Amino acid sequence: MVMRLSALIAPLVLLPAILGGCAVNPATGNPELVLMSEEDELALGREFNKRILAQIPAVEDKALQNYVQTVGEKVAEASHRPDLYYRFTVLDRPEVNAFALPGGYIYIFRGLLAYLNSEAELAAVLGHEIGHVTARHAVRQHRNQLLAQILATAVAIEAGGQAADLSQLLGAAILRGYGRGLELEADGFGAEYLAGSGYDHEAMLKVIGVLKYQEEFEKEKAKAEGREPNVYHGVFSTHPENDDRLQTVVRAAAKLQKNGDAINGRDRFLDAVEGMTFGFGKKDGIQRGGGFYHEALDFAFNLPEGWRLQNEPTRLLLYAPEGKAKAQITAHDLNKRVDARTFAEERLDIKGLKDTRTQEVNGLELFLGRFPESALFARRHIHLGIVYIKDQAIVLQAVNKEDDDDFDVQTPFSQLLNSLHRMTDAERDYARPLQITTQTAGKDASYAALAGMSPLEQDAESQLRLLNQAYPEGEPEPGIRLKVVK
What we know:
Helix content: 25-40%
Strand order of the largest sheet: 10-11-12-16-15-14-13
Number of helices: 15
Number of strands: 18
Largest sheet: 7 strands, antiparallel
Distance between the termini: 71 Å
Shape: globular
Radius of gyration: 26 Å
């Protein structure tokens, strides 16, 4: 009994040191328990910012970055914390998302920019994220999780474990949202900041409606492809037209709306995104039909028939039909001139390699083998392929779904390996990213006709409607400026 009490008392003794006392929240004006000073909050943002940019590159288009920074600063000036230096960064990924770190670091993926249609809508997204910063939502989430974890820490101490660190506590909330209450609060503050900076506060409802349609389309597509959907964390289960709480929160900002015409800035926004990459970029590699082409790494391959590819920032994942098997492709910098087996054992820490051999495939030397999934009581074996291209090791691995021995993963994996080759000059065009451009709709324009001329390979008509806020059944108005993909 004494041992258990000492384990329980240990974290509680630390409680006074953890708690910073009470303070007034700068956005809500309410007193709240504070577990982190403002300086610690800013330091946390600086540290996380380094981690984010080390993993996801920023868009190289300086004009686009400057434009988003300018719009963001305009909105932030009307916020509850105008003394912060806000940094707005467009991340070079196709996901439809945005998020904020403590201290004023705000990120928007270019995939989300593609579905916006005005400067006011951009300001609404940034205003929502600014609301998370001004109301210190990340800090408040950390406080709630930490307090709930105090007692759990006693159990972890007794069991010899440790409590989760701050990055684990914050990560899910930052990227997936803070729950309906805090997301609504961010919408309300964002609407206030829109009104205070001259933008129409109703743009908050407009952009949420746009994103809701995109979310519905993405969820249907993800379900059909057997994967998790990529959706913006600030959107809830109902459309804003049917969400009374959301409408009340946003329209409360009407009293703050500046006199005169509210800023829309549609043409300025369309000018800014003209030429922006749509979908995956050059550094990600591009899928065209049944082939994948990566110009930066100078390799290409064909997907096994029926397999689906998921392009992630640090790897390619391939899934067999019905999820019966999966494969992974990663690239690793080469620092020493070692053979592929040594690379596998020393750099990749692979144990128990067997059935190893080397063969030539399309002018490339390919190292092959397999190894147990784990050294102890292993049931499954992972098939391995390694090829050196320039100063990179391309590592390919494939494995059956757990407890599914009926599917022969080796056959489609061999097909993939045998198709691996350096890119040819004729394939360079396949590796060119798609781009957003604009054109004026003619009197007979239709999305079906535009889809017929589009390089988009799947759901082209729906995609074009989403890009132009005409989903699910709208048609272009003659004379209007449309976004298309080239």
